[in-house]
Amino acid sequence: MDCKSSDTLPGPRTEDRLPHTAEAAVKIVIVGGFGVGKTTMVGSVSEIRPLTTEETMTQAGIGVDDDYGSASKTATTVAMDFGRISITDELVLYLFGTPGQERFWFLWNGLFEGALGAVVLVDTRRLEVSFDVMGRLEERGVPFVVAVNSFPDAPRHPVADLRAALDLPEEIPIVDCDVRRRASSRDVLLTLTRFLHSLAAKGALA
Amino acid sequence: MTAPQRRRRTSRQPDPPDAGEAARKEGETQNPERLFVIGGDADGERAALDLVTLIVARADPPASATPEQAALLRLCAAPLSVAELSAYLRLPFSVVTALLTDLLAAGLVQARAPIVRQTVADRNLLEAVMHGLQKL
Ligand SMILES: Nc1nc2c(ncn2[C@@H]2O[C@H](COP(=O)(O)OP(=O)(O)OP(=O)(O)O)[C@@H](O)[C@H]2O)c(=O)[nH]1
Ligand SMILES: [Mg+2]
User: Fold this and answer.
1) At B19, is the secondary structure helix, strand, or coil?
2) What is the pTM assigned to this prediction?
3) For a substitution probing ligand 1, which of A31, A39, A41 has the most ligand atoms within 8 Å of its CB?
4) pLDDT in the model for residue B44
5) Residue A172 in 3-state DSSP?
6) Among A84, A193, A196, the residue to mutate for chain B (most B Cβ within 10 A)
7) Over the Cα atoms of chain B, what is R_g?
8) Which of A104, A119, B29, B65 is spaced 20 to 30 A from A46 at the CA atom?
């Protein structure tokens, strides 16, 4: 640790600075219901200490929303955790752990539209909490894979049963993971990237 | 397996590209206070900045810089994403975007646009990402 004077604003640690050659970034979104392990996954694969970006919105900013009662006029802060993985000296990958409720998504311009793809984290004890987010991704044409975060007391289902319950076509990967483990989280990201690659290959042939 | 059953949805026409911006603008007009605190020109155009647009300072903070601008310029002596700037400065994404719009106009920072998903994603790009992940 270097001793900086107290008036110095916090910034990246020396080892967290990107090289000047960093030219462009890509992003992947990790999305899922409350408490499903998004923050844990971002933290386990990130090369930097995970960070949080916030956005503030008012009642009016979420006007289309139905379950946000019109009684309160107070500002709501929505936080999103993110991490980073350097791919090459030129290319950086950012991972965003995003709240599952679509009403927040507009706050971050093009978060989903520009993402390479998404990981939908599910908990088999509460499978239905991820239904809506999958539908939203389908509507927006955002490619995704499903990662089943294996909590110890969660029921285990054969992939075929999960696929049927989630009504997912055969080509969409469904994988088990333990988001607390770096290698496991990394493998989920690799599964997504391979899937995206197969889509790109198909697109190129068509 | 006794689980609830989902129904697949199909892709709909994408939102017009400025739909999010329109919603954001609407939110801002309802909350002018915040903009007058730090946001600068509330009616001005915002630069199209993504969470992962990389920002690099082109100059040291000029004497005329506000404390927020100076802090931002010092942070991005090396490239840093808008998201990271927001996190380190503890400012909302929209406020950082407004700050950056002014700094870009003044030529004090450079913005390196992200690579976004395309209908047919670049296979070379995805292969680079795969190799990068495999090294982890
Ligand atoms: N046993 C077990 N616990 C886990 C696993 N993943 C996450 N947890 C725990 O579950 C809790 C919720 O995980 P988070 O990563 O905070 O989940 P989140 O999706 O970010 O939650 P919200 O942001 O609150 O919606 C934490 O206490 C984690 O330590 C897992 O794979 N196994
Ligand atoms: Mg979280």
Assistant:
1) helix
2) 0.85
3) A39
4) 54
5) coil
6) A193
7) 19
8) A104
The answer, for A204 touching chain B at a CB cutoff of 8 Å, is yes
Examine residue A16 and state whether it is found in any structural domain, yes or no. Answer: no
> Do residues A114 and B50 lie in contact, with contact meaning Cβ atoms separated by under 8 Å?
yes
> What type of residue sits at position B57?
A
Domain assignment of residue A17, yes or no: no
Residue A205 confidence (pLDDT) = 62
CA nearest B129 in A: which residue?
A87
Look up the domain containing A169 and give its range: 24-201
The CATH number for A66's domain is 3.40.50.300
The pLDDT tens digits of the residues spanning A98-152 come to: 987 777 777 777 788 899 999 999 999 999 888 888 998 998 899 999 999 988 8
ipTM attached to this prediction:
0.87
Burial A23-48 (b: 16+ CB within 10 A, else e): bbbbbbbbbbbeebbbbbbbbbbbeb
B134 touches chain A (CB under 8 A): yes
What pLDDT does A106 receive? 76
Cβ burial, residue B39 (10 Å; 0-12/13-18/19+): buried
| Interface contact flag, B21 A199, Cβ < 8 Å | no
Q: Tens of pLDDT along B85-97?
A: 999 999 999 999 9
Which of B29, B53, B126 is closest, CB to CB, to A193? B126
Per-residue model confidence as pLDDT tens digits over A152-202? 888 888 999 999 999 999 999 999 999 999 999 999 999 999 999 999 988
Indicate the top mutation candidate among A40, A150, A184 to test ligand 1's pocket, ranked by most ligand atoms within 8 A of CB: A40
**Number of domains observed in the structure of chain A:** 1
Number of H helices, E strands in chain B: 6, 3
